[in-house]
């Protein structure tokens, strides 16, 4: 990255980040996140849009497929299950196949532990089924239904490993 690239303004990073965020997470997800933004959460929304999406996801060295695989692994490692569910769908949008997501989770089982991978497989299976169902129903704009939301206050059912707030259509947070 040269000096001209680093000289971007915060506004440019935000604008570029918003484009990537919408492409990866879906317009519908980002629209819902923006609709829920309050004066209190606005600085956080700006932070993640500028830095996560505008500075990191826009870097040219790694493609989005690779970034998605890394992100899935990191979310499993940190037990961030609601974000993991969101990024399973994002990984499909970024071109990872179901088999590649499965391989990421098998790799995670070895390096992060079988219990974490077991939980990840349960969530991923549910999210992949929802993604495929929404893709079949939506045609070109797959994965834009309410199940795409991530909740920061998620209530994960221990039996099914499913975010029960998401199943009831509630969501307080976003990434």
Automatic annotation (TrEMBL):
<feature type="compositionally biased region" description="Basic and acidic residues">
    <location>
        <begin position="158"/>
        <end position="175"/>
    </location>
</feature>
<feature type="compositionally biased region" description="Acidic residues">
    <location>
        <begin position="144"/>
        <end position="156"/>
    </location>
</feature>
<feature type="region of interest" description="Disordered">
    <location>
        <begin position="134"/>
        <end position="175"/>
    </location>
</feature>
<dbReference type="InterPro" id="IPR003779">
    <property type="entry name" value="CMD-like"/>
</dbReference>
<dbReference type="InterPro" id="IPR012788">
    <property type="entry name" value="Decarb_PcaC"/>
</dbReference>
<dbReference type="InterPro" id="IPR052512">
    <property type="entry name" value="4CMD/NDH-1_regulator"/>
</dbReference>
<dbReference type="Pfam" id="PF02627">
    <property type="entry name" value="CMD"/>
</dbReference>
<dbReference type="GO" id="GO:0047575">
    <property type="term" value="F:4-carboxymuconolactone decarboxylase activity"/>
</dbReference>
<protein>
    <submittedName>
        <fullName>4-carboxymuconolactone decarboxylase</fullName>
        <ecNumber>4.1.1.44</ecNumber>
    </submittedName>
</protein>
<feature type="domain" description="Carboxymuconolactone decarboxylase-like">
    <location>
        <begin position="44"/>
        <end position="125"/>
    </location>
</feature>
<dbReference type="InterPro" id="IPR029032">
    <property type="entry name" value="AhpD-like"/>
</dbReference>
<keyword id="KW-0456">Lyase</keyword>
């Amino acid at each position: 990255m040269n000096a001209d690239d680093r000289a971007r303004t915060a506004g440019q990073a935000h604008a570029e980040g918003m484009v990537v965020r919408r492409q990866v997470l879906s317009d519908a997800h980002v629209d819902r996140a923006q609709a829920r933004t309050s004066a209190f959460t606005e600085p956080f929304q700006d932070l993640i849009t500028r830095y996560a999406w505008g500075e990191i996801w826009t870097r040219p060295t790694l493609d989005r497929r690779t970034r998605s695989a890394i992100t899935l692994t990191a979310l499993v490692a940190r037990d961030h299950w609601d974000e993991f569910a969101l990024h399973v769908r994002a990984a499909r949008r970024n071109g990872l196949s179901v088999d590649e997501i499965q391989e990421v989770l098998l790799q995670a089982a070895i390096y992060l532990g079988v219990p974490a991978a077991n939980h990840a497989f349960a969530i991923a299976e549910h999210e992949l089924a929802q993604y495929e169902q929404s893709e079949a129903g939506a045609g070109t704009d797959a994965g834009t239904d309410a199940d795409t939301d991530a909740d920061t206050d998620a209530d994960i059912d221990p039996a099914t490993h499913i975010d029960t707030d998401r199943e009831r259509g509630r969501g307080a947070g976003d990434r």
